[in-house]
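Help wanted!
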Amino acid sequence: MIELEDVSHSYGGGELLSGISLKLEPGSFHFLTGPSGAGKSTLLKLCYAELTPSRGRVRLFGAELGGMDRDAVARTRRRIGVVHQDCQFLDHLPLSENISLPLLAAGRDVAAEAGNLKELMAWVGLEAQAGSLPPQLSGGERQRAALARAVIMAPDVILADEPTGNVDWEMSLRILQLLIELNRMGKAILVATHDLNLIRAAKAHVAARVLRIKGRQLLLAGADL
Amino acid sequence: MRRLPALGDAFAGDPGADRIVPPSGFTARLTQFTAAAMAFLAVFALALSLAAGRLADHWGEALARTATVRISAPEGQMATQTDAVLAVLATTPGIAGARLIPEDEQRALLAPWFGPDLPVESLPLPRLVEITETAEGMDAEALRLRLSGEAPGAVLDDHTRWRRPLVEAAGRLRLLGWLSIGLIGATMAAMIALSANAALAANARVIEVLRLVGARDTFIARAFVRRFTRRALEGAAIGTAAGMVAVAVLPGDGAGPGVLTGLGFRGLDWLLPLALPLIAAGVAFGATRLTAMRVLKGIT
Ligand SMILES: Nc1ncnc2c1ncn2[C@@H]1O[C@H](COP(=O)(O)OP(=O)(O)OP(=O)(O)O)[C@@H](O)[C@H]1O
Ligand SMILES: [Mg+2]
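Answered by r_m:
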Protein backbone atom coordinates (compact mmCIF):
# COMPACT_ATOMS: atom_id res chain seq x y z
CA MET A 1 0.00 0.00 0.00
CA ILE A 2 2.85 2.32 0.89
CA GLU A 3 6.05 1.76 -1.01
CA LEU A 4 9.33 3.60 -0.79
CA GLU A 5 11.87 2.75 -3.42
CA ASP A 6 15.48 3.84 -3.03
CA VAL A 7 14.34 7.02 -1.31
CA SER A 8 16.73 9.66 -0.04
CA HIS A 9 15.93 12.82 1.84
CA SER A 10 17.80 15.88 2.97
CA TYR A 11 16.51 19.02 4.63
CA GLY A 12 18.90 21.14 2.63
CA GLY A 13 22.18 20.06 4.21
CA GLY A 14 23.59 16.56 3.84
CA GLU A 15 21.40 13.54 3.27
CA LEU A 16 19.55 12.43 6.39
CA LEU A 17 18.18 9.28 4.80
CA SER A 18 19.81 7.56 1.89
CA GLY A 19 18.59 4.81 -0.43
CA ILE A 20 15.71 3.68 1.77
CA SER A 21 13.32 1.01 0.50
CA LEU A 22 10.22 0.00 2.43
CA LYS A 23 6.98 -1.74 1.62
CA LEU A 24 3.96 -1.82 3.92
CA GLU A 25 1.65 -4.72 3.10
CA PRO A 26 -1.91 -5.14 4.43
CA GLY A 27 -1.93 -6.68 7.90
CA SER A 28 1.78 -6.10 8.51
CA PHE A 29 3.18 -4.70 11.75
CA HIS A 30 6.45 -2.77 11.75
CA PHE A 31 8.42 -1.00 14.40
CA LEU A 32 10.86 1.70 13.43
CA THR A 33 13.65 2.48 15.86
CA GLY A 34 16.81 4.48 15.91
CA PRO A 35 18.42 7.16 18.04
CA SER A 36 16.82 10.55 18.42
CA GLY A 37 17.45 12.61 15.31
CA ALA A 38 18.05 9.53 13.15
CA GLY A 39 15.14 10.43 10.91
CA LYS A 40 12.25 8.29 12.13
CA SER A 41 9.72 11.11 11.92
CA THR A 42 11.19 12.13 8.60
CA LEU A 43 10.67 8.65 7.19
CA LEU A 44 7.05 8.65 8.39
CA LYS A 45 6.47 12.05 6.80
CA LEU A 46 7.73 10.66 3.52
CA CYS A 47 5.17 7.87 3.88
CA TYR A 48 2.19 10.22 4.09
CA ALA A 49 3.51 12.84 1.69
CA GLU A 50 4.16 15.64 4.16
CA LEU A 51 7.64 15.54 2.67
CA THR A 52 8.69 14.70 -0.85
CA PRO A 53 11.91 12.75 -1.25
CA SER A 54 14.93 14.41 -2.77
CA ARG A 55 15.62 11.16 -4.61
CA GLY A 56 13.75 7.90 -5.22
CA ARG A 57 10.08 7.04 -5.63
CA VAL A 58 7.15 6.97 -3.25
CA ARG A 59 4.08 5.00 -4.29
CA LEU A 60 0.87 5.37 -2.28
CA PHE A 61 -1.90 2.87 -3.01
CA GLY A 62 -0.37 2.21 -6.39
CA ALA A 63 -0.09 5.87 -7.41
CA GLU A 64 3.20 7.64 -7.90
CA LEU A 65 3.50 10.58 -5.47
CA GLY A 66 5.31 12.63 -8.09
CA GLY A 67 2.30 12.48 -10.38
CA MET A 68 -0.26 13.57 -7.79
CA ASP A 69 -1.74 17.06 -7.62
CA ARG A 70 -2.60 18.69 -4.30
CA ASP A 71 -6.14 17.36 -4.25
CA ALA A 72 -4.95 13.83 -4.93
CA VAL A 73 -2.46 14.13 -2.06
CA ALA A 74 -5.28 15.30 0.23
CA ARG A 75 -7.48 12.38 -0.79
CA THR A 76 -4.62 9.93 -0.31
CA ARG A 77 -3.93 11.24 3.19
CA ARG A 78 -7.50 10.34 4.17
CA ARG A 79 -6.58 6.70 3.59
CA ILE A 80 -3.59 6.84 5.94
CA GLY A 81 -4.14 7.26 9.67
CA VAL A 82 -1.33 9.20 11.30
CA VAL A 83 -0.54 9.67 14.98
CA HIS A 84 1.80 12.65 14.86
CA GLN A 85 4.62 12.93 17.34
CA ASP A 86 3.26 16.30 18.46
CA CYS A 87 -0.38 15.27 18.05
CA GLN A 88 -1.33 18.24 15.82
CA PHE A 89 -4.64 19.26 17.36
CA LEU A 90 -6.54 22.49 16.92
CA ASP A 91 -6.38 23.91 20.41
CA HIS A 92 -9.54 26.00 20.08
CA LEU A 93 -11.77 23.02 19.29
CA PRO A 94 -13.02 20.48 21.85
CA LEU A 95 -11.56 16.99 21.64
CA SER A 96 -14.58 15.43 19.94
CA GLU A 97 -14.39 17.95 17.10
CA ASN A 98 -10.64 17.42 16.79
CA ILE A 99 -11.17 13.71 16.47
CA SER A 100 -13.89 14.12 13.84
CA LEU A 101 -11.86 16.72 11.92
CA PRO A 102 -10.85 14.27 9.16
CA LEU A 103 -14.54 13.55 8.53
CA LEU A 104 -15.28 17.26 8.20
CA ALA A 105 -12.27 17.78 5.94
CA ALA A 106 -13.40 14.91 3.73
CA GLY A 107 -16.81 16.54 3.36
CA ARG A 108 -18.59 13.77 5.27
CA ASP A 109 -21.68 14.40 7.35
CA VAL A 110 -20.20 14.61 10.84
CA ALA A 111 -23.59 14.57 12.59
CA ALA A 112 -24.51 11.33 10.85
CA GLU A 113 -21.38 9.68 12.25
CA ALA A 114 -21.95 10.80 15.83
CA GLY A 115 -22.58 7.17 16.87
CA ASN A 116 -19.24 6.03 15.45
CA LEU A 117 -17.48 8.92 17.10
CA LYS A 118 -18.94 8.04 20.47
CA GLU A 119 -17.94 4.42 20.08
CA LEU A 120 -14.44 5.46 19.10
CA MET A 121 -14.11 7.80 22.10
CA ALA A 122 -15.18 4.93 24.34
CA TRP A 123 -12.65 2.61 22.67
CA VAL A 124 -9.79 4.93 23.62
CA GLY A 125 -11.39 5.64 27.00
CA LEU A 126 -12.05 9.35 26.48
CA GLU A 127 -15.85 9.64 26.67
CA ALA A 128 -15.55 11.96 29.65
CA GLN A 129 -13.10 14.26 27.86
CA ALA A 130 -15.16 14.80 24.69
CA GLY A 131 -15.78 18.45 25.53
CA SER A 132 -12.29 19.29 26.81
CA LEU A 133 -9.86 21.41 24.84
CA PRO A 134 -6.62 19.61 23.84
CA PRO A 135 -4.36 21.73 26.11
CA GLN A 136 -6.43 20.62 29.11
CA LEU A 137 -5.59 16.94 28.54
CA SER A 138 -2.81 14.81 29.96
CA GLY A 139 -0.10 13.44 27.69
CA GLY A 140 -1.62 9.97 27.63
CA GLU A 141 -5.08 11.30 26.90
CA ARG A 142 -3.74 13.29 23.99
CA GLN A 143 -1.90 10.27 22.59
CA ARG A 144 -5.09 8.21 22.72
CA ALA A 145 -7.08 11.04 21.17
CA ALA A 146 -4.51 11.25 18.39
CA LEU A 147 -4.93 7.52 17.79
CA ALA A 148 -8.71 7.94 17.69
CA ARG A 149 -8.38 10.68 15.09
CA ALA A 150 -5.99 8.51 13.09
CA VAL A 151 -8.53 5.72 12.76
CA ILE A 152 -11.78 7.66 12.35
CA MET A 153 -11.62 7.44 8.55
CA ALA A 154 -11.15 3.66 8.83
CA PRO A 155 -7.78 3.76 7.04
CA ASP A 156 -5.98 0.64 5.92
CA VAL A 157 -2.61 1.93 7.14
CA ILE A 158 -1.76 3.52 10.47
CA LEU A 159 1.52 5.34 11.01
CA ALA A 160 2.22 6.16 14.65
CA ASP A 161 5.12 8.44 15.57
CA GLU A 162 6.12 7.83 19.19
CA PRO A 163 2.55 7.05 20.25
CA THR A 164 3.81 6.22 23.74
CA GLY A 165 6.09 9.18 24.24
CA ASN A 166 5.42 11.04 27.50
CA VAL A 167 3.25 8.33 29.03
CA ASP A 168 3.92 5.80 31.78
CA TRP A 169 4.41 2.11 31.15
CA GLU A 170 0.83 1.15 31.93
CA MET A 171 -0.53 3.67 29.48
CA SER A 172 2.06 2.59 26.90
CA LEU A 173 0.74 -0.95 27.11
CA ARG A 174 -2.81 0.30 26.72
CA ILE A 175 -1.95 2.19 23.57
CA LEU A 176 0.00 -0.78 22.26
CA GLN A 177 -3.05 -2.94 22.92
CA LEU A 178 -5.16 -0.62 20.77
CA LEU A 179 -2.61 -0.79 17.95
CA ILE A 180 -2.53 -4.59 18.13
CA GLU A 181 -6.33 -4.64 17.96
CA LEU A 182 -6.21 -2.52 14.82
CA ASN A 183 -3.61 -4.84 13.32
CA ARG A 184 -5.84 -7.82 14.01
CA MET A 185 -8.53 -6.03 12.00
CA GLY A 186 -6.14 -6.29 9.05
CA LYS A 187 -4.63 -2.83 9.11
CA ALA A 188 -0.97 -2.24 8.33
CA ILE A 189 0.77 -0.63 11.28
CA LEU A 190 4.06 1.23 11.43
CA VAL A 191 5.15 2.48 14.85
CA ALA A 192 8.18 4.69 15.30
CA THR A 193 9.52 4.36 18.82
CA HIS A 194 12.75 4.31 20.75
CA ASP A 195 11.14 2.28 23.53
CA LEU A 196 12.66 -1.19 23.15
CA ASN A 197 10.57 -2.57 26.00
CA LEU A 198 7.46 -1.68 24.08
CA ILE A 199 8.76 -3.63 21.08
CA ARG A 200 9.51 -6.65 23.24
CA ALA A 201 6.04 -6.47 24.79
CA ALA A 202 4.46 -6.32 21.36
CA LYS A 203 6.40 -9.26 20.02
CA ALA A 204 4.60 -11.49 22.51
CA HIS A 205 1.35 -10.73 20.70
CA VAL A 206 2.12 -9.99 17.04
CA ALA A 207 4.66 -10.97 14.43
CA ALA A 208 6.25 -7.56 14.18
CA ARG A 209 9.26 -6.71 12.08
CA VAL A 210 11.68 -4.25 13.61
CA LEU A 211 13.44 -1.76 11.38
CA ARG A 212 16.28 0.43 12.52
CA ILE A 213 17.69 3.58 11.02
CA LYS A 214 21.45 3.47 11.29
CA GLY A 215 23.88 5.57 9.37
CA ARG A 216 21.17 6.94 7.06
CA GLN A 217 20.19 3.40 6.08
CA LEU A 218 17.18 1.33 7.01
CA LEU A 219 18.17 -2.06 8.43
CA LEU A 220 16.23 -5.04 9.68
CA ALA A 221 16.99 -5.35 13.38
CA GLY A 222 18.42 -8.58 14.77
CA ALA A 223 16.60 -11.27 16.65
CA ASP A 224 17.55 -9.66 19.96
CA LEU A 225 14.47 -7.54 19.45
CA MET B 1 -20.53 28.66 -13.45
CA ARG B 2 -18.67 26.62 -10.85
CA ARG B 3 -18.27 29.72 -8.76
CA LEU B 4 -21.95 30.39 -8.29
CA PRO B 5 -22.75 27.50 -5.98
CA ALA B 6 -19.63 28.33 -3.99
CA LEU B 7 -20.80 31.91 -3.66
CA GLY B 8 -24.15 30.62 -2.44
CA ASP B 9 -22.24 28.49 0.04
CA ALA B 10 -20.71 31.58 1.50
CA PHE B 11 -24.11 32.65 2.76
CA ALA B 12 -25.54 29.27 3.60
CA GLY B 13 -23.18 28.87 6.54
CA ASP B 14 -21.87 25.65 7.96
CA PRO B 15 -21.31 25.97 11.70
CA GLY B 16 -18.94 22.99 11.83
CA ALA B 17 -16.70 24.18 9.04
CA ASP B 18 -16.89 27.77 10.28
CA ARG B 19 -15.45 26.85 13.64
CA ILE B 20 -12.29 25.26 12.28
CA VAL B 21 -10.77 28.71 11.94
CA PRO B 22 -10.67 30.45 15.32
CA PRO B 23 -12.70 33.66 15.45
CA SER B 24 -10.89 36.98 15.17
CA GLY B 25 -13.10 39.73 16.56
CA PHE B 26 -10.89 42.71 15.80
CA THR B 27 -9.99 42.06 12.15
CA ALA B 28 -13.58 41.03 11.53
CA ARG B 29 -14.69 44.43 12.76
CA LEU B 30 -12.09 46.12 10.52
CA THR B 31 -13.22 44.26 7.41
CA GLN B 32 -16.79 45.19 8.14
CA PHE B 33 -15.88 48.80 8.66
CA THR B 34 -13.92 48.90 5.39
CA ALA B 35 -16.84 47.44 3.49
CA ALA B 36 -19.26 49.86 5.15
CA ALA B 37 -17.12 52.91 4.36
CA MET B 38 -16.56 51.82 0.77
CA ALA B 39 -20.25 51.15 0.23
CA PHE B 40 -21.12 54.55 1.68
CA LEU B 41 -18.74 56.22 -0.79
CA ALA B 42 -20.02 54.09 -3.63
CA VAL B 43 -23.57 55.29 -2.97
CA PHE B 44 -22.43 58.86 -3.51
CA ALA B 45 -20.42 58.01 -6.59
CA LEU B 46 -23.48 56.25 -7.95
CA ALA B 47 -25.72 59.23 -7.17
CA LEU B 48 -23.20 61.51 -8.88
CA SER B 49 -23.05 59.30 -11.96
CA LEU B 50 -26.80 59.15 -12.27
CA ALA B 51 -27.25 62.90 -11.73
CA ALA B 52 -24.54 63.71 -14.27
CA GLY B 53 -26.17 61.29 -16.68
CA ARG B 54 -29.54 62.98 -16.30
CA LEU B 55 -27.90 66.36 -16.82
CA ALA B 56 -26.09 65.22 -19.96
CA ASP B 57 -29.31 63.76 -21.39
CA HIS B 58 -31.29 66.89 -20.59
CA TRP B 59 -28.79 69.27 -22.18
CA GLY B 60 -28.15 66.88 -25.01
CA GLU B 61 -31.82 66.98 -25.97
CA ALA B 62 -31.69 70.75 -26.10
CA LEU B 63 -28.78 70.52 -28.51
CA ALA B 64 -30.77 68.48 -30.95
CA ARG B 65 -33.05 71.46 -31.50
CA THR B 66 -32.78 73.43 -34.65
CA ALA B 67 -30.62 76.43 -35.25
CA THR B 68 -31.81 79.43 -37.30
CA VAL B 69 -30.32 81.71 -39.91
CA ARG B 70 -31.67 85.27 -39.81
CA ILE B 71 -31.37 87.32 -43.00
CA SER B 72 -31.70 91.09 -42.84
CA ALA B 73 -30.98 92.76 -46.13
CA PRO B 74 -32.05 95.87 -47.97
CA GLU B 75 -35.33 95.49 -49.86
CA GLY B 76 -33.79 94.75 -53.22
CA GLN B 77 -31.31 92.11 -52.05
CA MET B 78 -33.60 90.08 -49.81
CA ALA B 79 -34.57 87.50 -52.43
CA THR B 80 -31.02 86.97 -53.75
CA GLN B 81 -29.50 86.68 -50.30
CA THR B 82 -32.21 84.26 -49.21
CA ASP B 83 -31.51 82.10 -52.26
CA ALA B 84 -27.79 82.31 -51.58
CA VAL B 85 -28.32 81.22 -47.95
CA LEU B 86 -30.45 78.27 -49.00
CA ALA B 87 -27.84 77.28 -51.57
CA VAL B 88 -25.06 77.45 -48.99
CA LEU B 89 -27.08 75.43 -46.49
CA ALA B 90 -27.86 72.78 -49.10
CA THR B 91 -24.16 72.13 -49.61
CA THR B 92 -23.05 72.39 -45.99
CA PRO B 93 -22.13 69.06 -44.41
CA GLY B 94 -23.93 68.24 -41.18
CA ILE B 95 -27.21 69.83 -42.17
CA ALA B 96 -30.15 67.53 -42.60
CA GLY B 97 -32.59 70.15 -43.78
CA ALA B 98 -33.20 73.87 -44.18
CA ARG B 99 -36.65 75.37 -44.32
CA LEU B 100 -37.49 78.94 -45.18
CA ILE B 101 -40.22 80.00 -42.82
CA PRO B 102 -43.10 81.24 -45.00
CA GLU B 103 -44.36 84.75 -44.45
CA ASP B 104 -47.76 83.73 -43.08
CA GLU B 105 -46.07 81.51 -40.51
CA GLN B 106 -43.82 84.40 -39.59
CA ARG B 107 -46.86 86.60 -39.29
CA ALA B 108 -48.49 84.06 -36.99
CA LEU B 109 -45.36 84.14 -34.85
CA LEU B 110 -45.52 87.88 -34.54
CA ALA B 111 -49.27 88.16 -34.07
CA PRO B 112 -49.20 87.81 -30.30
CA TRP B 113 -47.05 90.91 -30.08
CA PHE B 114 -48.35 93.15 -32.85
CA GLY B 115 -51.87 91.93 -33.51
CA PRO B 116 -53.19 90.05 -36.57
CA ASP B 117 -53.46 93.13 -38.79
CA LEU B 118 -49.76 93.75 -38.98
CA PRO B 119 -48.76 94.55 -42.56
CA VAL B 120 -45.79 92.22 -42.62
CA GLU B 121 -45.10 92.85 -46.29
CA SER B 122 -44.51 96.51 -45.65
CA LEU B 123 -42.15 95.98 -42.74
CA PRO B 124 -38.43 95.37 -43.12
CA LEU B 125 -38.67 92.06 -41.29
CA PRO B 126 -35.78 89.60 -41.48
CA ARG B 127 -36.42 86.26 -43.13
CA LEU B 128 -35.84 83.13 -41.05
CA VAL B 129 -34.42 79.80 -42.20
CA GLU B 130 -34.79 76.88 -39.84
CA ILE B 131 -31.93 74.37 -39.87
CA THR B 132 -32.08 70.76 -38.72
CA GLU B 133 -28.71 69.22 -38.03
CA THR B 134 -27.67 65.68 -38.67
CA ALA B 135 -26.49 63.50 -35.83
CA GLU B 136 -22.86 64.49 -36.47
CA GLY B 137 -23.76 68.15 -36.27
CA MET B 138 -22.40 70.97 -38.35
CA ASP B 139 -19.32 73.13 -38.13
CA ALA B 140 -20.91 76.42 -37.12
CA GLU B 141 -17.76 78.50 -37.60
CA ALA B 142 -17.21 77.27 -41.14
CA LEU B 143 -20.85 77.95 -41.96
CA ARG B 144 -20.61 81.51 -40.57
CA LEU B 145 -17.58 82.12 -42.74
CA ARG B 146 -19.31 80.90 -45.85
CA LEU B 147 -22.48 82.84 -45.07
CA SER B 148 -20.58 86.08 -44.60
CA GLY B 149 -19.07 85.60 -48.04
CA GLU B 150 -22.26 84.60 -49.89
CA ALA B 151 -24.88 86.55 -47.96
CA PRO B 152 -23.53 89.38 -45.82
CA GLY B 153 -26.95 89.96 -44.24
CA ALA B 154 -27.24 86.43 -42.87
CA VAL B 155 -26.61 85.68 -39.19
CA LEU B 156 -26.38 82.16 -37.87
CA ASP B 157 -28.05 81.91 -34.50
CA ASP B 158 -27.17 78.65 -32.76
CA HIS B 159 -28.04 79.75 -29.25
CA THR B 160 -27.97 76.16 -28.01
CA ARG B 161 -24.33 75.79 -28.95
CA TRP B 162 -22.99 77.11 -25.65
CA ARG B 163 -24.36 74.05 -23.99
CA ARG B 164 -22.10 71.61 -25.79
CA PRO B 165 -19.14 71.95 -23.38
CA LEU B 166 -21.58 71.54 -20.52
CA VAL B 167 -22.92 68.35 -22.00
CA GLU B 168 -19.38 67.14 -22.43
CA ALA B 169 -18.56 68.06 -18.84
CA ALA B 170 -21.64 66.26 -17.57
CA GLY B 171 -20.71 63.19 -19.59
CA ARG B 172 -17.19 63.29 -18.20
CA LEU B 173 -18.60 63.64 -14.70
CA ARG B 174 -20.73 60.56 -15.23
CA LEU B 175 -17.67 58.66 -16.39
CA LEU B 176 -15.73 59.83 -13.34
CA GLY B 177 -18.55 58.59 -11.14
CA TRP B 178 -18.40 55.13 -12.64
CA LEU B 179 -14.62 55.17 -12.48
CA SER B 180 -14.86 56.04 -8.79
CA ILE B 181 -17.17 53.11 -8.21
CA GLY B 182 -14.65 50.87 -9.97
CA LEU B 183 -11.80 52.25 -7.87
CA ILE B 184 -13.81 51.86 -4.69
CA GLY B 185 -14.44 48.22 -5.62
CA ALA B 186 -10.77 47.65 -6.42
CA THR B 187 -9.68 49.29 -3.17
CA MET B 188 -12.06 47.09 -1.23
CA ALA B 189 -10.74 44.03 -3.03
CA ALA B 190 -7.17 45.04 -2.15
CA MET B 191 -8.00 45.71 1.50
CA ILE B 192 -9.84 42.43 1.86
CA ALA B 193 -7.04 40.56 0.13
CA LEU B 194 -4.62 42.10 2.63
CA SER B 195 -6.65 41.15 5.66
CA ALA B 196 -7.35 37.69 4.24
CA ASN B 197 -3.61 37.32 3.78
CA ALA B 198 -3.08 38.30 7.41
CA ALA B 199 -5.79 35.91 8.56
CA LEU B 200 -4.22 33.07 6.58
CA ALA B 201 -0.80 33.82 8.05
CA ALA B 202 -2.21 33.99 11.57
CA ASN B 203 -3.86 30.62 11.07
CA ALA B 204 -0.92 28.86 9.43
CA ARG B 205 -1.01 26.13 12.08
CA VAL B 206 -4.70 25.49 11.60
CA ILE B 207 -4.20 25.23 7.87
CA GLU B 208 -1.28 22.85 8.33
CA VAL B 209 -3.35 20.56 10.56
CA LEU B 210 -6.24 20.63 8.11
CA ARG B 211 -3.94 19.68 5.24
CA LEU B 212 -2.50 16.84 7.34
CA VAL B 213 -5.92 15.34 7.99
CA GLY B 214 -6.71 15.36 4.27
CA ALA B 215 -8.48 18.67 3.65
CA ARG B 216 -8.39 19.93 0.07
CA ASP B 217 -7.36 23.53 -0.62
CA THR B 218 -10.89 24.48 -1.64
CA PHE B 219 -12.23 23.25 1.69
CA ILE B 220 -9.74 25.34 3.65
CA ALA B 221 -10.20 28.36 1.40
CA ARG B 222 -13.96 28.15 1.87
CA ALA B 223 -13.65 28.57 5.63
CA PHE B 224 -11.95 31.92 5.06
CA VAL B 225 -13.95 32.94 2.02
CA ARG B 226 -17.20 32.39 3.87
CA ARG B 227 -16.10 34.64 6.68
CA PHE B 228 -14.87 37.52 4.59
CA THR B 229 -17.82 37.36 2.22
CA ARG B 230 -20.25 37.57 5.09
CA ARG B 231 -18.37 40.42 6.77
CA ALA B 232 -18.24 42.37 3.51
CA LEU B 233 -21.93 41.77 2.90
CA GLU B 234 -22.90 42.94 6.38
CA GLY B 235 -20.59 45.94 6.30
CA ALA B 236 -21.65 46.99 2.82
CA ALA B 237 -25.32 46.65 3.74
CA ILE B 238 -24.84 49.02 6.67
CA GLY B 239 -22.78 51.45 4.56
CA THR B 240 -25.27 51.38 1.71
CA ALA B 241 -28.19 52.02 4.03
CA ALA B 242 -26.35 54.95 5.63
CA GLY B 243 -25.39 56.34 2.22
CA MET B 244 -28.95 56.10 0.94
CA VAL B 245 -30.27 57.91 3.99
CA ALA B 246 -27.65 60.62 3.51
CA VAL B 247 -28.58 61.03 -0.16
CA ALA B 248 -32.29 61.06 0.68
CA VAL B 249 -31.91 63.95 3.11
CA LEU B 250 -29.74 66.03 0.75
CA PRO B 251 -31.53 69.29 0.04
CA GLY B 252 -32.72 69.54 -3.56
CA ASP B 253 -35.46 71.12 -5.68
CA GLY B 254 -36.72 67.68 -6.60
CA ALA B 255 -37.17 68.44 -10.28
CA GLY B 256 -34.29 70.41 -11.71
CA PRO B 257 -31.41 68.69 -13.43
CA GLY B 258 -28.66 70.71 -11.69
CA VAL B 259 -25.57 68.92 -10.42
CA LEU B 260 -25.95 70.11 -6.87
CA THR B 261 -29.67 70.20 -6.45
CA GLY B 262 -30.19 67.15 -8.65
CA LEU B 263 -27.81 64.85 -6.74
CA GLY B 264 -29.92 61.92 -5.68
CA PHE B 265 -31.90 58.97 -6.90
CA ARG B 266 -35.15 59.21 -8.86
CA GLY B 267 -37.80 56.54 -8.87
CA LEU B 268 -36.37 53.15 -9.79
CA ASP B 269 -32.85 54.54 -9.39
CA TRP B 270 -33.32 53.80 -5.71
CA LEU B 271 -33.02 50.10 -6.50
CA LEU B 272 -29.50 50.47 -7.93
CA PRO B 273 -27.61 51.05 -4.66
CA LEU B 274 -29.26 47.92 -3.29
CA ALA B 275 -26.93 45.96 -5.57
CA LEU B 276 -23.86 47.38 -3.80
CA PRO B 277 -23.82 44.93 -0.86
CA LEU B 278 -24.09 42.02 -3.29
CA ILE B 279 -21.28 43.42 -5.41
CA ALA B 280 -19.19 43.93 -2.27
CA ALA B 281 -19.85 40.32 -1.26
CA GLY B 282 -18.81 39.17 -4.72
CA VAL B 283 -15.64 41.24 -4.57
CA ALA B 284 -14.79 39.86 -1.12
CA PHE B 285 -15.48 36.35 -2.32
CA GLY B 286 -13.14 36.69 -5.29
CA ALA B 287 -10.40 38.50 -3.40
CA THR B 288 -10.36 36.06 -0.50
CA ARG B 289 -10.53 33.00 -2.68
CA LEU B 290 -7.68 34.12 -4.91
CA THR B 291 -5.57 35.04 -1.87
CA ALA B 292 -6.31 31.79 -0.06
CA MET B 293 -5.58 29.56 -3.04
CA ARG B 294 -2.31 31.38 -3.62
CA VAL B 295 -1.21 31.10 0.02
CA LEU B 296 -2.27 27.45 0.29
CA LYS B 297 -0.02 26.50 -2.61
CA GLY B 298 2.93 27.14 -0.30
CA ILE B 299 1.80 24.62 2.35
CA THR B 300 2.36 20.88 1.92
N1 LIG C 1 11.89 20.74 8.92
C1 LIG C 1 13.19 20.46 9.17
N2 LIG C 1 14.14 21.25 8.66
C2 LIG C 1 15.43 20.99 8.89
N3 LIG C 1 15.86 19.96 9.61
C3 LIG C 1 14.95 19.13 10.14
C4 LIG C 1 13.56 19.34 9.94
N4 LIG C 1 12.89 18.37 10.57
C5 LIG C 1 13.82 17.57 11.14
N5 LIG C 1 15.05 18.02 10.89
C6 LIG C 1 16.28 17.39 11.32
O1 LIG C 1 16.35 16.10 10.79
C7 LIG C 1 16.85 15.19 11.75
C8 LIG C 1 15.90 14.02 11.94
O2 LIG C 1 14.71 14.51 12.49
P1 LIG C 1 13.53 13.51 12.85
O3 LIG C 1 12.46 14.30 13.47
O4 LIG C 1 13.18 12.73 11.66
O5 LIG C 1 14.24 12.57 13.89
P2 LIG C 1 13.60 11.42 14.79
O6 LIG C 1 14.34 10.19 14.48
O7 LIG C 1 12.14 11.40 14.63
O8 LIG C 1 13.97 11.92 16.24
P3 LIG C 1 13.12 11.75 17.60
O9 LIG C 1 13.35 10.37 18.07
O10 LIG C 1 13.75 12.73 18.52
O11 LIG C 1 11.72 12.06 17.30
C9 LIG C 1 17.10 15.98 13.03
O12 LIG C 1 18.48 16.26 13.12
C10 LIG C 1 16.30 17.25 12.81
O13 LIG C 1 16.98 18.32 13.42
MG1 LIG D 1 10.52 11.89 15.73
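OP: Thanks! One thing I noticed: The radius of gyration of chain B is 32 Å.
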